[in-house]
């Protein structure tokens, strides 16, 4: 597995800063919350995983290049 570059990590941290609201579009994980679940970003780690506190109580992260979410706030 190849990890994203520092530039990509920095861009992810800018786009998905702590507290921003997101909606799940796709997650390839049997424990994933349902598509359309909303959550708040906790942080982006050094390998590009966006850690999210989902409204379902889950805290599964969005894996860079595998899963998808999008921002739903204007911040």
What level of helicity do the residues show? 10-25%
Radius of gyration: 11 Å
- Which fold name fills CATH's third level, the topology? SH3 type barrels
- Low-confidence spans: pLDDT under 50, at least 5 residues? none
**SS elements, strand count:** 5
Give the overall silhouette: globular
**Total discrete domains:** 1
Mean pLDDT: 94
- Level-1 CATH class name: Mainly Beta
Indicate the structural class.
alpha+beta
Please describe the biggest sheet, giving its number of strands, its sense, and whether it closes into a barrel. Answer: 5 strands, antiparallel
Task: Please specify the SSE layout and strand pairing.
Blueprint: H1 6-15, E1 21-26, E2 38-44, E3 50-54, E4 61-62, E5 68-71
Give an overview in words.
The chain is α+β, with helices and mostly antiparallel strands and 75 residues long. It has a single domain, classed as Roll (SH3 type barrels). The protein contains 1 helix and 5 strands. A 5-stranded antiparallel sheet has the order 4-3-2-1-5. Strand 2 (38-44) and strand 3 (50-54) form a beta hairpin. The longest helix has 10 residues, at 6-15. The radius of gyration is 11 Å and the shape is globular. The termini are far apart.
What would a concise description of this structure say?
The protein has 75 residues and is α+β, with helices and mostly antiparallel strands. It has one helix at 6-15, and strands at 21-26, 38-44, 50-54, 61-62, 68-71.
